[in-house]
Amino acid sequence: MLTEFFTMNTIDADARQYLYREFSEHYCWNRNSKSWRRRISNKKVIGRIYTVSPSEGERFYLRVILNHVKGPTGFQDLLTVNGITYPTFKQAAEQRGLLENNNSIRQCMLEAANIRMPSALRRLFATILVFCEPIGVRDLWNEFYLHMVDDYPSSSITTDVVHTNRLLNDLKLLLSQHDRRITEFDLPTITARSNESSSMPRIIQDELTIPMDDEELTLVDKLNNDKKFVYNTIMEVIQHKQTMTFFVDGPGGTGKTFLYRALLASLRSDGHIAIATATFGIVATLLPGGRRAHSRFKIPLIPEASSTCSISKQSDLAELIRRVVVLIWDEALMVNRHALEALDRILQDLMEVNSPFGGKVLILGGDFRQVLPVVPKGTKAELLDACIVNSPLWRYIKILHLTQNMRSINDQQFSEYIRRIGDGIEPFAKDDLIKVLSSMAIPWEGDHSIAQLIEQVFPNLQNHAYNARYMVDRALLTLINEDVDKLNEKIITQFPGEEQKLYSFDEVEDDTQHLYQQDFLNSISPGGLPPHILRLKKGAPIMLLRNIDPKVELCNGTRLLCRGCFNNVIDAEILTGQYAGTRVFLPRIPLKTTENVHLPPICDDKVSISNTLEFCTYN
Ligand SMILES: Nc1ncnc2c1ncn2[C@@H]1O[C@H](COP(=O)(O)OP(=O)(O)OP(=O)(O)O)[C@@H](O)[C@H]1O
Looking at residue 55, what is its pLDDT? Predict the structure, then answer.
């Protein structure tokens, strides 16, 4: 059947659009003539390939390739990758990026080193140390040392030791942003300090030296009336060293971020320390020196009623928090109240003050019209219970309101419309559906309306593939991942140039008997994990789904432009924010679902396996 499948692919162009397992859905097998012929009936057929255990060696790798290569014309074709024919299916599968290769971390560094961007390479090396738990760190150091120091100035008297120390100090700084120490890794010892002048902890120095351009200092003068009132109320409390927790409530676009920036600029320019955080990394990037609240305060990822933050009283972070005059937490409504309660507990403990948030001035911000915190598979009651407004702390919070929409100040009709929806007073057109303004809508007239939508949002896409400005201003948003995948599929084909496919390596932890087949794992995308196949082209916009490097604003939600794509690394350019234009390397990193995925139970003659297992992917 397989060799006849090859034959059909040689003679029938239509056949070549299918994988082997899909082929039998369109062609049927004639036992007598031992050949395939096109199906005539519309009967639904499900295609599959016999399962093969990894212990069967080459047969297993042949199956892996068959599950990814459409229209092969023979074994030779399957063994050939980029014009080179490999002696085994295993090698061919590795070359196609279908197998996790022991060597893939080295390959990743190698691919990145060829692009000759030493500072991005140093950052990549630190990312690999933090996320990929590589074996043979010293070998990687030795092999890529020269590439990583390539841009350090050299003179006739510069010794190797100078470069080594400089590189180690740079790595130390990069690792410290992930709360990791360089001494945890098998790297040479630093024999000379960088020019750190004071004994002040690095974390405090960083806060005191957050860069601020002149524009930030002018924001206070530009505040409109409602923001001015909120600003003065907060500043008065800070200046009189009183304690208070505020909640700044404002629909999207009313200038909450603008207000925080004005507050931060005023306080920091007076030499005060003000910590800026947000629930999501991408929101935090809008604030100078902003960090994700969970990572800044070391809040557990899934906080519970009695959780606390893991900050020891003697740590530098504790010292920083003691010196802080104000803490800002944007988009606080989208966080589980247990996270806020954990912060309250740790602040009381660190400050040794028995009042809400240890007597610190805390500014929470958000919009009551936004979505509530996520409680996976939670009931309505559980969802409501998770909101910070239902925390016992809420009664200590003073609410301040912003009302004037500054983002659409020149479009009152839209601004009013958005407010009515948020307040729940826009009349329903039918059931619980509201009518979208006709100026914003493309009428649904069948599938071609999708093409129309794409054309409307990305006009003349082919001519703008590398245009960062063009990409920044455009995005299609949808509610569910399935639609995202469908739209991505359509849009990526419109980009010029050759497509590169990147595959994840999926596995179920503790499934030593390989009861879950690769192709099954590849076919599911549990929450938070990307799809098995990433189709990329140079010039295509991409979005990062993981907090990799908050310092350069590389976090969940950062938008980038693909500048190059290899089997183990993506060369990308940051599109927005302070670091727009910076080139970064994105390696494959292991990802794990935050919760157990309910996989179907597998029953075997001898084995049955529980159906809630952790699912990992290496994307
Ligand atoms: N007083 C002001 N003067 C001029 N522009 C302003 C003012 N306040 C806000 N803006 C502008 O209005 C836009 C929206 O402001 P901002 O992003 O601060 O709102 P937001 O409430 O944080 O919105 P969201 O909740 O959607 O994040 C920004 O472009 C900001 O620069």
Answer: 84
pLDDT of residue 598: 66
Element (H, E) at 264: helix 256-269
Print the SS3 string covering 442-490: CCCCCCHHHHHHHHHHCCCHHHHCCCHHHHHCCCCCCCCHHHHHHHHHH
From 230, 406, 411, 414, the mutation candidate for ligand 1 (largest count of ligand atoms within 8 A of CB) is 406
The ipTM of this complex is 0.93
Question: Atom 1, ligand 1: which residue's CA is nearest?
Answer: 223
Please give the backbone phi and psi of residue 608, each rounded to the nearest 5 degrees, phi first: -130, 145
Q: What residues have CB less than 8 Å from 4, skipping those under 6 apart? A: 34, 35, 36
What is residue 596's predicted lDDT score, i.e. its pLDDT? 62
475-481: long-range contacts (C-beta < 8 A, 24 or more apart)? 475/559, 481/525
Q: How far is CA 2 from CA 8, 50, 75, 89, in A?
A: 10, 12, 10, 15
| Cβ < 6 A, ligand 1 pocket | 222-224, 227, 250, 252-258, 367, 406-407
Please check whether residue 113 is in contact with residue 144, taking contact to mean a CB–CB distance below 8 angstroms: yes
DSSP result, 549-578: BGGGTB-TT-EEEEEEE-SSEEEEEE-SST
- Helix, coil or strand: residue 223: coil
Give CA–CA dist 25/21, Å, rounded.
Answer: 8
C-alpha to C-alpha distances, 126 to 74, 160, 303, 594, 604, nearest whole angstrom: 43, 21, 28, 23, 44
Query: Percentage of the chain with pLDDT > 70?
Result: 94
What is the token pair recorded at 226? Answer: 């409602």
**Two structure tokens written together for 221:** 């003068």
C-alpha span between 472 and 560 (Å, rounded): 9
Q: Judge contact between 550 and 291, C-beta under 8 A.
A: yes
* Interatomic CA distance for residues 242 and 238, integer angstroms: 6
Output the CA angle 131-134-137, nearest 5 degrees. 120
Our CA angle for 58, 81, 48, nearest 5°, is 50
Radius of gyration over every alpha carbon of the chain, rounded to an integer in angstroms: 28
Residue identifier of the C-alpha nearest atom 18 of ligand 1: 255
Residue 361 pLDDT > 70: yes
> Average per-residue pLDDT in the chain?
88
C-alpha 473/C-alpha 489 separation (Å) is 20
Q: What is the best residue among 263, 407, 576 to mutate for testing ligand 1's pocket, by most ligand atoms within 8 Å of CB?
A: 407
